[in-house]
Amino acid sequence: MEEDVMQTEESGAKVLVKPLPKILDDLDEHIRSAILASREAQESARLAARSAADAIAAAKDSRESGERIAQEAQRKAEEALAKAEEALVKAVIKKLSQSEWAVTAIVLILALVFGAAFLAVALMSAL
């Protein structure tokens, strides 16, 4: 038989009985283990809460950055569209200007032809 455990028989079954100091030591050890586990659980919960708060803040920052980038992209697209419209207007004006010069040249040539014809008629009449 061991020193700290005594065997007794009760109703035909063996029951192990520990001395009270050993039971109290075991109980004290279990309480200390429970306190340590509780502290570790609290620290884990605190770390999890901090991690969740950091994740929420990072998500918010990402969303705000995405919105700023989208706004900047939209502004750049609007600027590019305005420049394209301006270039188109300039091209149309240039084309119209070139056409006006062609029309003006045709009118001048026709004026010279009619002038030469009138001069020829006048000279023929005078002779």
Chart the SSEs and their pairings.
Elements: E1 6-10, E2 13-17, H1 20-126
Antiparallel strand pairs: 1-2
- The gyration radius over C-alpha positions equals 52 Å
Oligomer: single chain
- Number of helical segments? 1
Q: Please bin the fraction of helical residues.
A: over 70%
Number of strands: 2
Strand content: 5-15%
| Uncertain residue ranges | none
Shape: rod-shaped
Structural class: mainly alpha
Please summarize the sheet with the most strands: 2 strands, antiparallel
User: Strand order of the main beta sheet, please?
Assistant: 1-2
Give a brief rundown of this model.
The chain is mainly alpha-helical. The chain has one helix at 20-126; strands spanning 6-10, 13-17.
Any overview of this molecule?
- By secondary structure, the chain is mainly α.
- It has one domain.
- It has one helix and two strands, in the order ββα.
- A hairpin with a 2-residue loop joins strand 1 (6-10) and strand 2.
- The protein is rod-shaped and about 160 Å long.
